[in-house]
């Protein structure tokens, strides 16, 4: 009972921080996700550094990821030119060249895990800027879109809630027992149905006043399903990551919920997929 209370309280605080950061203004969103990106990369680097012959420079990898997010935010918001990415590219070059002088046992491992921290964490999180900043169809100016980034996480939370409730009651057939034995097909279907309902409700209320390609209820339902599918794969990818490392949780920063990777694993696949979905719709 005590663990349930702790889990519930930390979960409520987490959701409140996320909703506030995504809803207040662009600066709050950028600050929140720069912090999330930094903490997640640091956690990732800490975990992989425990493997034999792996030595990732946690500080530089974390700073590089945070800078990439800020550069993407500046570029997408129209505040900085594309030249803002040059320092990040130089950092990547440095991380490769530095292995020539560090005399590590397995520099290929170091390169691989360092670049994985950028591709797996920094790049997906940076993609939220492509959802949050939009050009106005009226004057071409850039405005901050609160709805779309927040909805990605609402869909993920609803999917988790639906999958847990339905899976607990009706779950019989394992979804991916080799990686995550607790997940069931019944739970996944229940989560998807709940997300489709929530997406339809959101689409109904915003479709007439939303200045993007998301102008119909089917568009919103489609986005919800994209988030469900790729969010589930994101969860499974992180489960495989933890199983490979032989750990139960990626950390303990969130009591009852594990670490940063545990909390954001689904979004690391859902955000890029949502970006592709939105930009694909814009082509038609």
Summarize the structure.
The chain has 11 helices and 4 strands; from the N terminus they run H-H-H-H-H-H-E-E-H-E-E-H-H-H-H. By secondary structure, it is mostly helical.
Secondary-structure topology with pairs:
Blueprint: H1 2-23, H2 26-48, H3 58-76, H4 86-102, H5 107-126, H6 128-132, E1 133-135, E2 142-144, H7 147-170, E3 174-176, E4 180-184, H8 185-206, H9 217-245, H10 260-264, H11 267-281
Antiparallel strand pairs: 1-2, 3-4
Helix pairs in contact: 1-2, 2-3, 2-5, 3-4, 3-5, 4-5, 5-11, 7-8, 7-9, 8-9, 9-11
Task: Looking at this protein, list some descriptive labels.
284 residues, mainly alpha, two-stranded antiparallel sheet, 11 helices, 71% helix, 5% strand, globular
Structure characterization notes:
This protein has 284 residues and is mainly α. It contains 11 helices and 4 strands; from the N terminus they run H-H-H-H-H-H-E-E-H-E-E-H-H-H-H. It has helices spanning 2-23, 26-48, 58-76, 86-102, 107-126, 128-132, 147-170, 185-206, 217-245, 260-264, 267-281, and strands spanning 133-135, 142-144, 174-176, 180-184. The strands form 2 sheets. It has a two-stranded antiparallel ribbon with strand order 1-2. A two-stranded antiparallel sheet has the order 3-4. Helix 2 (26-48) runs antiparallel to helix 3 and helix 3 packs parallel to helix 5. The protein starts with a helix and ends with a helix. The model has no long low-confidence stretch (mean pLDDT 90).
């Amino acid at each position: 009972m005590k663990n349930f209370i702790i889990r519930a309280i930390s979960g409520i605080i987490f959701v409140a921080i996320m909703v506030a950061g995504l809803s207040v203004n662009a600066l709050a969103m950028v600050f929140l996700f720069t912090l999330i990106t930094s903490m997640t990369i640091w956690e990732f680097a800490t975990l992989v550094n425990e493997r034999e012959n792996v030595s990732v420079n946690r500080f530089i990898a974390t700073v590089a990821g945070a800078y990439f997010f800020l550069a993407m935010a500046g570029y997408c918001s129209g505040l900085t030119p594309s030249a803002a990415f040059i320092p990040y590219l130089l950092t990547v070059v440095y991380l490769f060249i530095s292995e020539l002088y560090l005399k590590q046992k397995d520099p290929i491992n170091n390169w691989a895990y360092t670049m994985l921290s950028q591709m797996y964490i920094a790049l997906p999180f940076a993609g939220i800027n492509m959802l949050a900043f939009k050009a106005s169809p009226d004057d071409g100016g850039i405005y901050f879109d609160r709805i779309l980034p927040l909805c990605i996480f609402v869909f993920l939370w609803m999917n988790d809630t639906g999958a847990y409730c339905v899976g607990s009651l009706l779950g019989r057939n394992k979804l991916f027992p080799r990686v995550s034995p607790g997940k069931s097909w019944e739970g996944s279907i229940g989560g998807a149905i709940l997300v489709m309902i929530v997406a339809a409700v959101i689409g109904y209320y915003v479709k007439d006043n939303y200045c993007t390609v998301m102008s119909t209820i089917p568009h919103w339902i489609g986005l919800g399903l994209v988030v469900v599918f790729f969010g589930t794969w994101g969860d499974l990818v992180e489960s495989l990551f933890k199983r490979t490392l032989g750990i139960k949780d990626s950390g303990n920063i969130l009591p009852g919920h594990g670490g940063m990777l545990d909390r954001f694993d689904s979004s690391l696949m859902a955000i890029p997929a949502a970006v592709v979905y939105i930009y694909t719709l814009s082509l038609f």
